[in-house]
């Protein structure tokens, strides 16, 4: 009996086969992690280099290949923040926010309404209208730039934020409409029917029942719109002409244009700042974001 | 509470498919009406038309003498329980229950007292602060029931509410729902119920009356006993009862009393007198497995069959036998079953005369129904 007492306690000596298997697993894991680490580093290296370089002096920037600054300085941040214009970089950040916030809200509201209509109701011409939405999704943005520009010029909206806000507030971003429709299709209709039996109107059903269930998708929509608008360069470049109204994407380019010898450390420092909001928002909302893009979040 | 009337209800879909063919149905005040039928018989569609979740192509739905065709579901005075509960996933049980009352702008204290009362009846008080995803299937279905009950509707609609539960829970919920219905009746506020199911056990045990449907037509509306003893047609006869009623092609001829011939074998039977008039020729013979006596081979007025299968069910044995090209199932109580019988053996099968049904080959109508027949069956049952 004594000889058997160690069985099942986890303390029994390892057999030859067990040791062999364990060695094999370890080698395999080491190999996989090495490959992952190398490829991952290649992807993230430009970002690391940029952050490192933003603390370098302009002179050191191209003399040393290392991303670690020899003498770290925040001078790039201080000078970059001042900019070569009468405005500080903070002003441009506020401009960006002023573009982004109404645009994100408008997108969320309009996309929900349009997607709800397409996903849940039958109406004449639905097929053609939906095909149109999908067609705009496939159309390259560039194609519509000139007609759009002419349109907004004739209305007199140039050099204002309206050309950036209004199309989104009218569900102009077909991608988001499509995304919300797909998400809605995966949600069973029973809850909405139960709400109708409970006496809710169509709008009440949307607000009290559908929107809460759509939350993961809507958060993804808002995140995407936030990041894309933050990074959008072409839109503001075309429609906004006065420096006072520039968002950060244009302000960054501004410092390249106006200085004769480019102060790269300033540009990089401001680029790091520009990236910060998107990254922060992404990491904060990562959980919902993933839930939203992998559609069908409601479990029975 | 109110009565519900369906008048020549039709449903045709956009693609031209006609799902419901002019249904007429009256559900009395406080009555428990079960709609039952195989899948695709449009029972759920009919229920959804009553609820207002499907449009009515033609005909009228009246609730308490008011035509509700054009009313939205919320204004029809109905409450519905769905198969997969359809609880609002982001609301706690308490809000799930009170959502309908809130929309109707009831006072907060009224909502609170109603919530307490309903959760007391359904024993869900301790679940009030939970989210639907934290509930088991049975609990979720009780909450769904509560959400219907709290509104004190004119008519309750149930759409296969127990299908998602396991067998044991289903049995207890069945009792709970019928008890609740009786309790409300006793308290003087009887509930009119329309209950859709595909499960004949639910139908037979719960319904005051049962409406059997097939392909968008009503086959028979009757109380469970009538449905079982006097099926109006071969479809109802085959649908109600476990195992299914034996339905086999046969010939009827006159030889003093009625003579039934199946694939060359013929027997005399006395139970059909006064039921089938002068009918002769081809018919469909219907006899329930419980009413088929297993006797010795060559016994009087019995078919001779060969055993093709024996199913031991515990309390009884299902004996499958072939008579020529026809197959029969007979149910024998285990203690009366001759254990020496094996597959391939010959047995005698004697149908109980008064329990024989004959159906028209073309229309499937029961041609052996008559007032006397009912009396004969009653007397037989008393014995």
From TrEMBL, chain A:
Record's GO cellular component terms: plasma membrane
Gene Ontology biological process terms, A to Z: transmembrane transport
Gene encoding the protein: araQ_4
Domain (ABC transmembrane type-1): residue spans on this chain: 93-285
Name of the protein this chain belongs to: L-arabinose transport system permease protein AraQ
Segments traversing the membrane: 30-52, 92-116, 128-152, 164-184, 205-228, 262-285
Localization terms from the record: Cell membrane
Membrane topology, as annotated: Multi-pass membrane protein
Entry-linked InterPro entries: MetI-like (IPR000515), MetI-like_sf (IPR035906)
Family of this protein: Belongs to the binding-protein-dependent transport system permease family.
Chief location bin: membrane
Keywords from the named record: Cell membrane, Membrane, Transmembrane, Transmembrane helix, Transport
TrEMBL record, chain B:
Keywords, sorted A to Z: ATP-binding, Hydrolase, Nucleotide-binding, Transport
Stored Gene3D superfamilies: 2.40.50.100, Nucleic acid-binding proteins (2.40.50.140), P-loop containing nucleotide triphosphate hydrolases (3.40.50.300)
E.C. code: 3.6.3.20
GO terms assigned for molecular function: ABC-type maltose transporter activity; ATP binding; ATP hydrolysis activity
Record keyword Glycosyltransferase present: no
GO cellular component: ATP-binding cassette (ABC) transporter complex, substrate-binding subunit-containing; maltose transport complex
InterPro entries tied to this protein: AAA+_ATPase, ABC_transporter-like_ATP-bd, ABC_transporter-like_CS, ABC_transpr_MalK/UgpC-like, Mo/tungstate-bd_C_term_dom, NA-bd_OB-fold, P-loop_NTPase, Transp-assoc_OB_typ2
Protein name stated in the entry: sn-glycerol-3-phosphate import ATP-binding protein UgpC
Keyword set includes Cytoplasm: no
ABC transporter domain segment(s): 4-240
Family: Belongs to the ABC transporter superfamily.
TM region positions: none
């Amino acid at each position: 009996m004594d000889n058997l007492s160690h069985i099942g306690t986890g303390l029994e000596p390892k057999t030859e086969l067990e040791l062999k298997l364990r060695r094999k697993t370890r080698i395999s894991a080491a190999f996989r992690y090495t490959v992952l680490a190398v490829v991952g580093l290649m992807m993230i290296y430009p970002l690391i280099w940029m952050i490192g370089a933003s603390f370098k002096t302009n002179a050191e920037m191209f003399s040393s290949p290392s991303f670690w600054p020899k003498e770290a300085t925040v001078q790039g941040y201080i000078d970059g923040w001042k900019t070569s214009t009468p405005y500080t970089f903070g002003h441009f950040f506020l401009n960006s926010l002023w573009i982004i916030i109404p645009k994100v809200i408008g997108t969320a509201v309009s996309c929900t309404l349009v997607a709800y209509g397409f996903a849940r109701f039958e109406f004449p011409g639905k097929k053609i209208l939906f095909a149109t939405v999908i067609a705009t999704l496939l159309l390259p943005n560039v194609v519509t730039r000139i007609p759009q520009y002419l349109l907004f010029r004739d209305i007199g909206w140039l050099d204002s934020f309206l050309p950036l806000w209004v199309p989104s507030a009218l569900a102009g971003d077909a991608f988001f409409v499509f995304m919300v429709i797909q998400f809605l299709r995966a949600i069973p209709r029973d809850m909405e029917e139960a709400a109708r039996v409970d006496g809710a109107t169509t709008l009440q059903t949307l607000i009290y029942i559908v929107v809460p269930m759509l939350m993961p998708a809507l958060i993804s929509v808002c995140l995407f719109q936030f990041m894309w608008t933050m990074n959008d360069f072409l839109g503001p470049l075309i429609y906004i002409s006065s420096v006072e109204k520039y968002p950060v994407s244009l302000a960054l380019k501004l410092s390249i244009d106006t200085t004769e010898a480019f102060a790269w450390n300033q540009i990089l420092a401001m680029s790091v700042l520009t990236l910060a909001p998107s990254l922060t928002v992404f990491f904060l909302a990562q959980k919902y974001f993933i839930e939203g893009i992998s559609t069908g979040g409601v479990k029975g | 509470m109110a009565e519900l009337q369906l008048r020549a209800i039709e449903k045709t879909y956009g693609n031209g498919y006609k799902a419901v063919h002019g249904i007429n149905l009256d559900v009395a005040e406080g009555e428990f009406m079960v709609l039952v039928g195989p899948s695709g018989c449009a029972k759920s569609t009919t229920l959804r038309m009553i609820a207002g979740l499907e449009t009515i192509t033609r005909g009228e739905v009246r609730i308490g003498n008011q035509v509700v065709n054009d009313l939205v579901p919320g204004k029809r005075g109905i409450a519905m329980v769905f198969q997969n509960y359809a609880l609002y996933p982001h609301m706690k049980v308490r809000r799930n229950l009170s959502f309908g009352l809130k929309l109707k702008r009831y006072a907060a204290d009224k909502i609170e007292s109603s919530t307490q009362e309903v959760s007391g009846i359904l024993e869900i008080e301790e679940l009030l602060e939970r989210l639907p995803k934290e509930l088991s299937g049975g609990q979720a279905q009780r909450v769904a029931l509560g959400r219907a009950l709290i509104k004190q509707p004119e008519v309750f609609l149930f759409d296969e509410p127990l299908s998602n539960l396991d067998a044991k829970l289903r049995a207890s919920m069945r009792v709970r729902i019928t008890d609740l219905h009786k309790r409300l009746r006793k308290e003087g506020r009887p509930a009119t119920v329309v209950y859709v199911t595909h499960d004949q056990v639910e139908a037979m045990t719960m319904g005051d009356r049962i409406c059997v449907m097939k392909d968008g037509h009503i086959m028979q509306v009757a109380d469970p006993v009538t449905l079982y003893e006097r099926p109006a047609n071969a479809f109802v006869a085959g649908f109600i009862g476990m195992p299914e009623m034996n339905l086999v092609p046969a010939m009827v001829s006159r030889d003093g009393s009625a003579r039934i011939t199946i694939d060359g074998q013929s027997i005399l039977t006395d139970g059909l007198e006064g039921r089938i008039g002068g009918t002769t020729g081809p018919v469909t013979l219907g006899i329930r497995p419980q009413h088929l006596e297993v006797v010795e081979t060559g016994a009087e007025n019995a078919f001779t069959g060969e055993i093709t299968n024996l199913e031991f069910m515990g309390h009884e044995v299902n004996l499958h036998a072939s008579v020529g090209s026809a197959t029969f199932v007979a149910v024998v109580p285990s203690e009366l079953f001759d254990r020496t019988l094996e597959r391939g053996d010959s047995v005698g099968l004697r149908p109980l005369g008064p329990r024989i049904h004959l159906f028209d080959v073309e229309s499937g109508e029961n041609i052996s129904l008559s007032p006397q027949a009912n009396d004969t069956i009653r007397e037989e049952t008393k014995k």
